[in-house]
Sequence to fold (598 residues):
Amino acid sequence: MKIKIHRGTHQIGGCVTEYESNGWHLFVDYGEELQGGPRSGALKVEGLTHGDLSKSALLITHYHGDHIGCIAELPEELPIYMSEIGCELQSVLSNRLKTVDNTHQKILERLQKAKTFKPGVEFSFGPFKIMPIIVDHSAFEACAFKIVADDVKAFHTGDFRTHGFRSGTLPKVIKKFVGEVDYVVCEGTNVRRPDATSVSEPELQRQFEAKFRENKNNIVYLSSSNIDRLFGLYHAARKAGRPFYVDAYQKRMMDVVTKRDHIWGKSRLYRYDDKFEPLVLQYEDDEDKVEEKGCVLIARANPLFDKFIERIPGESHKYLSMWKGYVEESCEAYNLRLAKSLGKDFEYMHTSGHCDMGSMREFFNLLHPKAIIPIHTDNPEAFAELFCDEWPITLLNDGESISVISDDHAKCHVSILCVTPPYALDEKILGGFKYCEDANFMLAHTKYCSPLLIGYAVEEESVWPVHAEVFDAEKKLLATYESGEHHPGGKRFQEPCPFAKGEKVLAVFHAGYDVVVPATVIGPLSVDLVRESYEQDEYLNDVYSSFEDYLKEWNDWDWDEVAVHPLEKVTSPFEVIGTMGETEFVPRIYLFPYREVK
Ligand SMILES: [Zn+2]
Ligand SMILES: [Zn+2]
Fold:
């Protein structure tokens, strides 16, 4: 499977990801680039914007403009998949906006033909198995996808958070529908915004409730599609005893969620109290009704609302419950209309729709990936810096891809060699690859800084390595192995090792031990050294009739060993191997610079 990030490796809006397998292309999201952020411009992608589309499809994670906003530009024959209610909410939104923006007419037409899926129900496209799951976000029914092809499991998070009303179920949902995966393509919006998530959605609702009790007339500006916030405000108003007013469009959006014969309709959060239905604002004479009990009014920045709000008797309290960049003149996303309606005197009450970095770590522990690719972030390096102590982070540029295949079918592997103190070798596979160039690309683009890291090995193998390159923890090439000519008399016999005689190293013993021990280098393997060890080994003496007979078993890989003197003698779990002696043999390429490991 190839995972290619067409856009979004270094920006928040407009991420486009492609999963490719056997000539089939599964794209995820096709939205707008954010105003004020870096912009890479229109995309030209074979199999998506042009070319043969017969094996292509597009998945939409959720209805935010930066994920869906550009679908009208895509060829009509491209199938688009979206969650049922997400699609319906976007249709209500586009239906309202189509008169002012023709793009929405086109989006509407595309969505009428969209194929909808249900979260938790797996579906297929070509060789891909796709499991959509619900994640909590400021868009309703936002989805993450587990995408499986070629026995490789990827998890595409989309936008998500863990501090919303419904976030508590995420670990359970991951366990039930996703399990562990190989790679995670993860959003990293809040990597440099630690304050954005300081309040949880339930806490924000409680704060609003307190404000609504305290203040009679409450005017809240928020995104009309932030359904969870809306229902949070509705319940806050209900508890505070303030009538809850919305306009007809906003009521339609809420009704999409409540009226369904669907799991959402059963949730207390998305249910209206019979005695407390949201009131649809009749601009003409409602200000008199407001007079008595006050109100919570979900307002939109337009003159109709402005005039109504002016007519409400008494003082009105205004709240901004969306990203404050919209009303900061220095921001490119500055919205003059909103700033005007809101005025100078308002309270900012908001929490992010994106995950905080502390929770992200717990989330990775559930998925246990081989590597994580950050997207939807303006600082992938900071993301890598944060998590590379525990997880390999693969940093790509727009247009770059990794090509991975299942370990079982791989011809080449990248291993990450770590030590679990005191001596246990902890070898992780970063990936299996068809070609060594793919393996080297992945290694070069992956940042990993575990304090237990020893180094890396890129090995092409059948039974024994055919070609191998070994790197230290800083990815500096230490040694190369090329199969052939390592026998006595061969031109690679006693090939130089990167460490001098007597030098202290960390020696990695695989088979028989799986340990990393400090050792000093004795020197290249010689026939005499092999004879010496044979003569001292009772087991070998029993098994082979003569030393010559024993030597027949020695292959090229065995002959490329060096003798070392282990500074700690480790006992093998296999009885016949026993405890390390004064002299041990270890593959020449598995020696690493010495350092203390704690
Ligand atoms: Zn979003
Ligand atoms: Zn987004």
In short: The mean pLDDT is 95.
